[in-house]
User: Fold this.
Amino acid sequence: MNTNDLNLPEVIIYTDGGASPNPGLGGWSAVLYSPKHNRTREIYGAVPDTAAIKALEALKMPCKVILTTDSTYLKNAFTEGWLEKWQRTNWKNSDKKNVLNRDLWEELLKLTSVHSVKWNWTKGHADNKFNNRCDELVQQARREYN
Assistant:
């Protein structure tokens, strides 16, 4: 995004997802935090979308986003150039097989183009209160939607 980051509201997002058994219907959750307003919003559900997609869809205007995930796969797809490579190779991975969940990756690319996104990783089930809250919400979503 070419917008001046200084003019965008900042939102810190934590996401999580999980299924048990895996594969199976899983839950997703996100905690969105606005430092300027000291306001938190929690969202969760159990649909075949990712938490990152739902969290970015929840933003009502372009924002400066710090998106924290416990998924190195998600983070690295954006920070290590994997998405650019997949697009150049017509969505083939290094084994020349189709990249799984192409539709979700394309939706994430569309959503991240609206915002200025910085990707962070945190260890799951550790001492990060927002990530731990996301995990609790995932379990709640699995109970409510299974």
Observations:
- The longest strand covers residues 10-19.
- The chain has five helices and five strands.
- Residues 129-145 form the longest helix (17 residues).
- The chain has a mean pLDDT of 89.
